[in-house]
TrEMBL record, chain A:
<keyword id="KW-0690">Ribosome biogenesis</keyword>
<dbReference type="Pfam" id="PF01172">
    <property type="entry name" value="SBDS_N"/>
</dbReference>
<dbReference type="InterPro" id="IPR046928">
    <property type="entry name" value="SDO1/SBDS_C"/>
</dbReference>
<dbReference type="Pfam" id="PF09377">
    <property type="entry name" value="SBDS_domain_II"/>
</dbReference>
<comment type="similarity">
    <text>Belongs to the SDO1/SBDS family.</text>
</comment>
<protein>
    <recommendedName>
        <fullName>Ribosome maturation protein SBDS</fullName>
    </recommendedName>
</protein>
<dbReference type="InterPro" id="IPR039100">
    <property type="entry name" value="Sdo1/SBDS-like"/>
</dbReference>
<dbReference type="GO" id="GO:0005737">
    <property type="term" value="C:cytoplasm"/>
</dbReference>
<dbReference type="InterPro" id="IPR019783">
    <property type="entry name" value="SDO1/SBDS_N"/>
</dbReference>
UniProtKB/TrEMBL annotation, chain B:
<keyword id="KW-0342">GTP-binding</keyword>
<dbReference type="InterPro" id="IPR056752">
    <property type="entry name" value="EFL1"/>
</dbReference>
<keyword id="KW-0547">Nucleotide-binding</keyword>
<dbReference type="Pfam" id="PF00009">
    <property type="entry name" value="GTP_EFTU"/>
</dbReference>
<dbReference type="Pfam" id="PF25118">
    <property type="entry name" value="EFL1"/>
</dbReference>
<dbReference type="GO" id="GO:0003924">
    <property type="term" value="F:GTPase activity"/>
</dbReference>
<keyword id="KW-0378">Hydrolase</keyword>
<dbReference type="InterPro" id="IPR000640">
    <property type="entry name" value="EFG_V-like"/>
</dbReference>
<dbReference type="InterPro" id="IPR005225">
    <property type="entry name" value="Small_GTP-bd"/>
</dbReference>
Length: 229, 1143
């Protein structure tokens, strides 16, 4: 039983605990909130800004410090700072509020950017802006016309396989822009990028490498500025 | 609130006063062309245009003279009233009688704010004369100069009103003598501006003549050469250009107090009183003359003799004593004495009023009414539409650089119609529409509620009575059902039929209500126009000619003597339509008209389908379109506009189209990024456009934001000096701990980077290895590549065709251009490093035609050159294309499309492929079995784990499959890492990215060149704004003949948001910038810079957290795109909010 002696207590506030189990023992260190992720990503370089104290605990909230023997057996060193950095790098932690928030925000932005990059307004064939996409995702009851930007392909098939393949390709093609069947079948068409692999496979296998396939544009969008008049 | 209430009262009152008689009179006057004056009021902002217009409007009884100057009748928009500035030009027709002659005055009020100077242009075009208003205190201001120039360019005659003279008395407390010299100075200033306009024109003409003479000289090649050095100024007479009170083209006024006078009035007044001939007084009243009372003579040289000039003694002193008595001392007796001596009647209510201004304006508006002074001057001095000068006609008719003589003959004949300006039936109709303005459908006279005429009232009463009777009859019959079977039949029929008609009435009423509601939602456009010849009638068929219409083309296409009523073949920029409705513009009101004869300003309804912003309307197809309006302000403030609710996008687009039509200066466009951009002339203009979009055109909530700013990424040669300009070589590098740590994490496994920046990378299946080095391209080469995109595209196309054993025919001209392009490239790529580089170019990127180069430096690999279109004839040894050649190129394309710094395209980077080893011994037998798996196997090669890339990699892998040989099917060798070609693309892309990162990376910013005109006194402030926004001054020179400086500077696009506004604010509008995109420029600071040398440590400290421009831009882009940004979530760990309770 320890006697309650307030003057001897060092109280830690705003603690984020990082835990690690090693060599059958549990180790904890006391860090500041919202700092551990920055350390791991390399943005924070000052260890003192991350660690509350260069001490390895068994239990931070109870203030139980880890024994030296355990430390050396688990980390191979008695240097507390070294042990702390190891725990910091590999231990598990409760992600703090603002870390979570910024993570989510990044993720959200990333998703919106990808959507904006890959999709177009089917009417104008122009992309939507990221901000608009974000807004649509946030308020889901709103809806806009959106479509995966088409991919423009051009393929040349030998006359022999042309007819047969065309039937097989038909369901995969969205629109045929240009078709020329004289000596060989030459086609320029728009497809959904998801179908690309199928088409690629089909042409490669069926023509035994005779057919050629080429991507004219990865996404079919209007280029340049347009004046509204 | 008060203001709005009074407005209502006034509009009501105006209706009462503007009865039909007045409208009829105006219609009658419209036919007398020599008695029409079309004029506009021009001035700097806040010099009192609208107040003066109020006084003139009040003279016609449209508004009360008591409210003139406070009401601002022509500012009909709510935001105009709130902000107190005019934002559009609006017209009103006034009637004025002088000396037994009746005049029709079409007055156009214009805005003075710089942002709306386009509205001024639209007003000036329709007028023959202009009233230029100058503030007596402020004198000539920037906009005054601008409007004088505009009037000059349109060849319209100006008259001057020096306004706000009361401020000289009340605010500045000048004596009459001082005021006189002050007024003289202002007059001089105005005349100086006119003079310089005149000089520049003469000099220009002279230069033109010289050029012509020179060309003719060179043609002749001989003959005696005469050198004429006289500028031509001496020969040209300019005396009638200037403003001078004794010419009668200057009025001194105080519109707010309702008085104004010209010298004429006083001359006549005193000639009666003093018995001096008025012609003598007229000449001497303004100028250095004084009255010698003893000799009863008017003598010259008042200044040298210290005498009071005549103007002070006879004119100003009277006004000064009036102000003294009424405003300053409030001497009742003296006032009464003055009033009786002037023979005026002042109401006792005004005499007792506590505000002396009321009394003052009551006296002054009777004594020296401003409207009379101004209107009589206008009628005398400004030309009528019939007096249009031949010079102006030619200027209007010759579009662009085309000379009048070069127009078709029939068109030249129309000049006569202009000059005749006749309202004959036979005269061709020529109308110019200078702008379209939107009108609420409620405001259109057709939809307006009118007071009912006597007959209508009687008719309605009759109807109501009938209905009442029927209802009563029905009630009666209902009360006594089946009372009398015999009569019942007849009585029941009547109410029944009555009920039916009632129901019908109700239906039709409902219908009409519905259509009315529908119409309410629609914006109506009215064309603001003027008839230059002929009579425009309602229901007439006319041609609408767009600004790009060419009469000579049409004359060839159309049969001789055709009219708009015939069925005609379509001609570009020409449309046929019927004139829907014609309006008389009465400020905020419109009155319907049936016909408008020549020389009048009018509104035309129902033209929105045919006219975008401006157009020419004519009955003759040979009519040329009028020269485009000279806009002083070009739109420069850009914002991206988005609807609050994304589903309302179509509404926004529609609204923006309407806005574009309604505003002469606004531009709207959709950018490649998908942004809807609105470009306006200034911040105030922007605000108005957004308000219009919200409330009238789109009727949705919108948000405006900074537009997306593009960047480019590049590498540079390693810098020789550090951030503090110390030589790098001599200094010792200070080891930084965390940097070492970073170096290790920078490159993942399998990537080797040597000290020279060569990056070697192996595909995941260990089959191929590529070695790539990034080299910065010289600036000139980058520019060359940018300028020749079209050529590169052609070359690319040629290679593509060659691949399939086809040929593409390129015309000789383009081939020559390509050859020239190649030579230029060679001359710019000199030195050991670039030996033979041009021949070894593998591809251009991104999108196969960008400003980056892929170089083939692989030993022993000769591939067909990109220049093969040039060497078609000399078939050299057949170069061999290796398998997967295209994968390398595709990888390069992807890498250049988005760089590692912030996923923006690369620019000016050369990637040189130094090694490319393949182990193509892949066992073919296994292929088939593996092929089946390929569909499930995702090519998970992307080390960056950017999921977005996987798909693209995947996709472009196909482009590599342009295989021709059957054996190449081996190329589809698929293992758990996906198709091999895809792996190679990914490997190449990554190699390029790492090679890029191994070099000093820099960001490139888009730059505007910016031309600023500024006066000498604000030069310093212009520089301050420029340097604050990272701008750089290129040159500064004085404009010849003026005190204006022209500064040429470059400014990053990223810093340009709000620049125009800031510079205008800081220089009080004395400098106006023009921004044009010019080029891409490397930002010199390194976004990844950390202090490394001792000097840098000393200077910046260890953290070096001073702002780094490039880093700021880079992080902003990364944050926008949701990429990882290296920044701490919390800066200081200890400074966070403590959430736990303090124990």
């Amino acid at each position: 039983m320890s006697i309650f002696t307030p003057t001897n207590q060092i109280r830690l506030t705003n603690v984020a605990v990082v835990r690690m189990k090693k060599a059958g023992k549990r180790f904890e260190i006391a860090c500041y909130k919202n700092k551990v992720m920055s350390w791991r990503s390399g943005a924070e370089k000052d260890l003192d800004e991350v660690l509350q104290t260069h001490t390895v605990f068994v239990n931070v909230s109870k203030g139980q410090v880890a024994k030296r023997d355990d430390l050396s057996s688990a980390f191979g060193t008695e240097d507390l700072t070294e042990a702390c950095t190891q725990i910091l790098a590999k231990g598990e932690l409760q992600v703090s509020d603002r870390e979570r928030q910024s993570q989510l925000e990044h993720m959200f932005r990333d998703i919106a950017t990808i959507v904006a990059e890959k999709c177009v307004n089917p009417e104008t064939k122009r992309p939507y802006t990221v901000i608009l996409i974000e807004r649509v995702i946030k308020q889901l009851q709103q809806s806009i016309q959106i479509q995966r930007a088409h991919m423009r392909l051009r393929f040349v098939l030998p006359a022999r396989d042309g007819k047969r393949l065309k039937e097989k390709l038909r369901p995969l093609i969205k629109t045929v822009e240009n078709e020329d069947f004289t000596e060989q079948l030459e086609m320029v068409c728009l497809i959904d990028p998801g179908c690309f692999r199928d088409i690629d496979e089909l042409i490669r296998c069926e023509t035994k490498g005779k057919g050629t396939l080429e991507v004219l544009s990865l996404k079919d969008v209007e280029e340049g500025d347009e004046k509204l008049e | 609130k008060n203001c709005i209430i009074t407005k209502c009262q006034i509009t009501w009152r105006s209706k009462v006063k503007m009865g039909h008689t007045s409208l009829e009179k105006i219609i009658a006057l419209q036919k007398k062309t020599p008695h029409i004056r079309n004029l506009c009021i021009l001035a700097h902002v806040d010099h009192g245009k609208t107040t003066l217009a109020d006084c003139l409007v009040a003279s016609n009884g449209i508004i009360s003279s008591r409210l003139a100057g406070k009401l601002r009748y022509l500012d009909s928009r709510e935001d105009e009233q709130i902000r107190g500035i005019t934002m559009k030009s609006s017209a009103i027709s006034l009637h004025y009688t002088t000396g037994g002659n009746e005049y029709l005055i079409n007055l156009i009020d214009s805005p003075g704010h710089v942002d709306f100077s386009s509205e001024v242009s639209t007003a000036v075009r329709l007028c023959d004369g202009a009233i230029v208003v100058v503030d007596a205190v402020e004198g000539v201001c920037p906009q005054t100069q601008v409007v004088l120039r505009q009037a000059w360019l349109e060849n319209i005659r100006p008259v001057l009103v020096i306004n706000k003279i009361d401020r000289l008395i009340v605010e500045l407390k000048l004596t009459s003598q001082e005021a006189y010299t002050h007024l003289q100075k202002i007059l001089e200033q105005v005349n100086a501006v006119t003079g310089s306009l005149f000089t520049s024109k003469v000099l220009e003409e002279r230069a033109e003549k010289d050029a012509e003479a020179q060309s003719s000289c060179t043609e002749n090649g001989s003959g005696d050469q005469v050198y004429d050095w006289s500028a031509g100024l001496e020969e040209t007479d300019d005396s009638d250009l200037y403003f001078s009170p004794d010419r009668g083209n200057v009025v001194f006024a105080s519109a707010i107090d309702g008085w104004g006078f010209s010298i004429h009035q006083f001359a006549e007044m005193y000639s009666q009183k003093m018995g001096i001939r008025s012609s003598v007084l007229l000449k001497t009243l303004w100028g250095d003359f004084y009255l010698n009372a003893k000799a009863k003579k008017i003598m010259k040289g008042a200044q040298s003799k210290g005498k009071k000039p005549l103007f002070v003694q006879l004119v100003l002193d009277n006004i000064w004593s009036m102000y003294d008595a009424v405003v300053t001392r409030r001497d009742k007796e003296k006032v009464e004495k003055m009033v009786t001596s002037l023979g005026l009647k002042v109401m006792s209510r005004d005499l007792r009023h506590s505000d002396p201004k009321v009394l003052l304006s009551a006296i002054c508006s009777q004594w020296l009414p401003v409207s009379q002074a101004v209107l009589s001057m206008v009628c005398e001095k400004l030309p009528s539409p019939a007096e249009i000068s031949a010079e102006r006609v030619e200027k209007l008719m010759s579009v662009g650089a085309r000379r009048f003589d070069s127009l078709p003959e029939q068109t030249q004949e129309l000049k006569k119609a202009f000059l005749d300006c006749s309202a004959d039936e036979t005269a061709p109709v020529i109308v110019f529409v200078s702008k379209m303005f939107a009108v609420d459908s409620k405001a259109l006279p057709q939809n307006k509620q009118r007071p009912l005429t006597q007959e209508e009232i009687a008719q309605r009463r009759e109807q109501a009575r009938q209905r009442h009777a029927e209802r009563q009859a029905a009630n009666q019959s209902a009360e006594s059902p089946g009372s009398a079977d015999t009569g019942g039949a007849s009585t029941t029929v009547a109410p029944a039929s009555g009920a039916v008609t009632d129901a019908l009435c109700a239906q039709t009423e409902a219908l009409s209500v519905k259509t009315a509601v529908e119409e309410d939602n629609k914006e109506h456009f009215v064309a603001f126009a003027r008839v230059y010849s002929g009579v425009l009638r309602k229901g007439q068929k006319v041609f609408v000619l767009g600004p790009k219409y060419d009469p000579s083309l049409a004359l060839r296409a159309l049969p001789e003597g055709c009219s708009a009523a015939d069925v005609l073949p379509s001609v570009p920029h020409m449309a046929c339509c019927t004139v829907d409705s014609l309006y008389l513009l009465m400020g905020r009101e419109l009155e319907e008209l049936d016909e408008v004869p020549t020389g009048n300003v009018l509104g035309i309804g129902g033209m929105e389908e045919f006219i975008l912003k401006s157009a020419t309307i004519s009955t003759s197809p040979s009519c040329p379109p009028f020269t485009p309006l000279n806009f002083e302000a070009t739109p420069i403030v850009r914002v991206a506009v988005e609807p609050k609710h994304p589903s309302e996008m179509p509404k926004l687009v529609r609204g923006m189209r309407l806005l574009n039509q309604a505003d002469p200066c606004a531009e709207v466009l959709i950018q490649e990024t998908g942004e809807h951009v609105l470009v306006t002339a200034g911040e105030v203009h922007l605000q108005r456009c957004l308000d219009d979009l919200r409330e009238r055109f789109a009727k949705i909530e919108i948000s405006a934001s900074k537009p997306i700013i593009p960047f480019r990424e590049t590498v540079i040669r390693p810098p020789k000096v550090d951030m503090v300009n110390e030589d790098m070589g001599k200094q010792q590098k200070v080891a930084v701990i965390h940097q070492v740590k970073e170096e290790q994490t920078k490159y993942p496994e399998g990537v080797q980077v040597d000290s020279t920046g060569l990056v070697t990378l192996t595909t995941p299946n260990k089959m191929a290895t590529v070695g790539v080095r990034a080299i910065p391209l010289p600036e000139e080469v980058t520019r060359l590549l940018e300028d020749n995109v079209e050529l590169i595209r052609t070359m690319e196309q040629f290679s593509l065709f060659a691949w399939e054993d086809k040929t593409l025919d390129i015309n000789q001209k383009i081939l020559e251009n390509i050859q020239e392009f190649k030579v230029k490239l060679e001359s710019n790529l000199q030195g050991r490093k670039w030996r033979g580089a041009v021949e070894r170019i593998w591809a251009f990127g991104p999108r196969r035609c960008g400003p980056n180069i892929l170089l083939n430096s692989v030993e022993g690999y000769r591939r067909p050159s990109v220049w093969q279109c040039l060497e078609r004839e000399k078939e050299t040894e057949k170069a061999e294309i290796r398998d997967f050649d295209n994968s390398i190129a595709s990888g390069f394309q992807l890498a250049t499309l988005s760089g590692p710094m912030c996923e923006e395209p690369l620019m000016g980077v050369c990637f040189s492929v130094e090694t490319w080893d393949m182990k193509l011994s892949a066992p073919l037998a296994q292929q088939d079995s593996i092929d089946e798996d390929s569909q499930t196997a995702e090519p998970n090669i992307d080390n960056q784990n950017e999921s977005s890339d996987t798909h693209e990699t995947n996709a472009s892998s196909a482009s590599s499959n342009r295989s021709r040989s059957g054996a190449e099917a081996a190329g589809s060798s698929v293992d758990c890492y996906g198709p091999f070609s895809g792996q190679l693309i990914a490997a190449m892309k990554e190699a390029c990215r790492y090679a890029f990162q191994a070099k000093p990376q820099r960001l490139m910013a888009a730059m505007y060149t910016c031309e600023i005109m500024a006066t000498a006194e604000v030069l310093g402030r212009v520089y301050a704004v420029l340097s604050k926004r990272e701008g750089r001054v290129l040159q500064e020179e004085m404009k010849e003949g003026t005190d204006m400086f022209i500064i040429k500077a470059v400014l990053p696009v990223a810093e340009s948001f709000g620049f125009a506004d800031e510079i205008r604010k800081r220089t009080s509008g004395l400098a106006s910038p023009q921004l044009v995109f010019s080029h891409w420029e490397v930002i010199s600071s390194d976004p990844f810079w950390v202090p490394t040398t001792e000097e840098e440590y000393l200077h910046f400290g260890e953290k070096a957290d001073s702002s780094n421009q490039a880093l700021k831009y880079m992080n902003a882009v990364r944050r926008r795109k949701g990429l990882y940004v290296e920044e701490k979530i919390v800066e200081h760990a200890e400074k966070q909010r403590t959430l736990s309770k303090n124990k």
